[in-house]
Amino acid sequence: xxxxxxxxxxxxxxxxxxxxxxxxxxxxxxxxxxxxxxxxxxxxxxxxxxxxxxxxxxxxxxxxxxxxxxxxxxxxxxxxxxxxxxxxxxxxxxxxxxxxxxxxxxxxxxxxxxxxxxxxxxxxxxxxxxxxxxxxxxxxxxxxxxxxxxxxx
Length: 153
Fold this sequence. Notes:
By secondary structure, the chain is mainly α. The chain has 5 helices and no strands. The chain has helices at residues 2-33, 38-46, 61-87, 95-114, 124-145.
């Protein structure tokens, strides 16, 4: 019984970390590096006088560009796959299905951006980063939690 409690705590910790931390970090990156985005504008309205903006300079241009353009989407896709894995209860047999669902969601979002049906810019590298994040999240969670062999475990 005691082992089952430790196992549930480990599972909760992994999912909490893999869902919450990427969302918070991705949001912070948008607040700090993307003054033209909703998270930054909302933050300024909620917390006037607090400036978390990181200025893009010639020295940090490539790093800040990578963080702003790709890491946010990577983190959010990682979090999405973690949520889907949680819904499927970490079942090893459902890993491929969860990766497909999360990847399709990423494709749909990018296509909607391509046709300007939602805010954002279509970028094939974004899509590649998101799919890599989805696969990594699924594999890492499967490895850390041992991948349940069936849905009843």
